[in-house]
Amino acid sequence: MASKTRRPAPSAPSASRRYSPRTRLLAGVLAVVMVGSGFAVGIASITNRGSSTTDVLVPTDCPAHDKSDAPRYRFDARPIFCLSSGITYTAVFDTSEGEIRFTLDRIGMPETTNNFVALARYGYYDNTLLFRIDPSIGIIQGGAPTTNDWSDPGPGYQIPDEGGTFHRLANEGVSGPFSYESGQLVMARSSGLNSSGAQFFFTTTESVSLLDSQGSYLLFGTTDNAGQSVLDAMMDLYVVDPDSPYGGGPSHEIVVRSVAIVEG
Question: Is the predicted pLDDT of residue 7 greater than 90, yes or no?
Answer without folding.
Answer: no
